[in-house]
Amino acid sequence: MAYLNSTSEATTKKLQRENLKLKQELKDLRAQYQQLLEEGKEETFEERRVSLLKAQVMQLERQVVLLAEGLSSQAARSLEVENALGFLTDRLRALLSVESYSPEVSITRPELTQLIETCGEIRQKLHRNNKVTSVENLSMPWLLSGRNFTKEPITL
Asked: Which residues contact 130 (CB under 8 A, 6 or more apart)?
C-alpha cells in the first residue's frame, strides 16, 4: 500500500512539473505570437519570406547539431559496450580453455558473480544509450532575435 502511495505521489509531482512546464511554454508562445504580429505589420512579403527562410535554416542547423551529438554519443556508448563484451568473451573463453575437456565447466562463485555483474553493467550501458538517444531527450536552446527571447528546450 505504501508503495502505491509513493508511486502515485511521484506521478502526481511529475505531472505537476509537466503542467507548469506546459503553462510556461504556452505563455512563451503567446508572447512570441504577439511579437510576430507586431513585427508583421511593418514587414513586406519579401521580408517575411526571408525571415521564414532564415528561421528554417536555423532550425535545420540545430537539428544537424543534435543529430551529430546523438551519433557521437551512440558511437562512444557502442565502443564501451564492445569493450565490455570483449572482456566477457575473453573470460568465458579462458574458462573453456582449461585442460579438461569434460562437458561441464567448473567456475567459482566469485567468478560467476563477477561475470553476472559485467553482464549487468553492459545492460545498463545499453539502457542508458537508449534513454539518451530518444527523441524526447534531444533538445537545444534557441534565441529569437529582436527581443532576446530564450526558449528551452526545442526538440526535433
From this structure: none
CA dihedral 78, 79, 80, 86 (to 10 degrees): 110
Reduced 3-state DSSP string for the chain = CHHHHHHHHHHHHHHHHHHHHHHHHHHHHHHHHHHHHHHHCCCCHHHHHHHHHHHHHHHHHHHHHHHHHHHHHHHHHHHHHHHHHHHHHHHHHHHHCCCCCCCCCCCCHHHHHHHHHHHHHHHHHHHHHHHHCCHHHCCEEEEECCCCEEEEEECC
pLDDT digits (tens, 9 = 90+) for 45-79: 788 788 889 889 989 998 999 899 888 888 888 88
Model confidence, pTM:
0.46
CA distance 135 to 131: 9
Average pLDDT taken over every residue of the chain: 78
Query: Is pLDDT at 151 greater than 50 in this prediction?
Result: no
Burial of 107 (0-12, 13-18, 19+ CB in 10 A): middle
Strand 149-154 to 140-144 pairing: antiparallel
Amino acid at 1: M
Neighbours of 138 (CB within 10 A): 20
